Amino acid sequence: MRYSAAPGDRAAEPPADRSQALATCLRLSGDSEHAPGQARAYVGLTLADWGVAEAVRADLQLIVSELATNAVIYTQSPEITVEIILTDDEAAVSVGDHGPHRQLRAQQAAPDAEHGRGLLIVEALASRWEQRRDDAGGTTVRAGIDLPGSPAPPAALSSQDETNVPRDHP
Fold first, then answer.
1. Quick check: 144 and 127 in contact, CB under 8 A?
2. What DSSP state is assigned to residue 153?
3. Burial of 168 (0-12, 13-18, 19+ CB in 10 A)
């Protein structure tokens, strides 16, 4: 795996045969209203550099934007971490915060509510998503999209504190 910290960093270019996972991580200020947009741009540039299809990139950009927005709005985390992982079968993003761990659930928001639809969007776009309590007591949410032509992975997770929601993705 290669790690880089700058959008568009070509050091993380995929090999012609992508038989190993590629990963990159970006740390952002958790109290900045710009963090979701920075995360979205980073995911878009990185996945474009890695040759991921535009439809998958767009979906993951929206997903990471929703997850980063949740981390900024609902935690007092001084920092959020955005990770992008690409394997032969899946492209995924995760957003971690250092706020108190919270059990997240997608639920319907009131029609006039300004917030509350982010996890519904994640659930609708991702092939699967999960959450876990990290070692520091914060929350990490991971969402993945199956790449075209790849078999769906098993749906079971072993940890009691994780949510795994398999979804069909167009």
1. yes
2. P
3. exposed
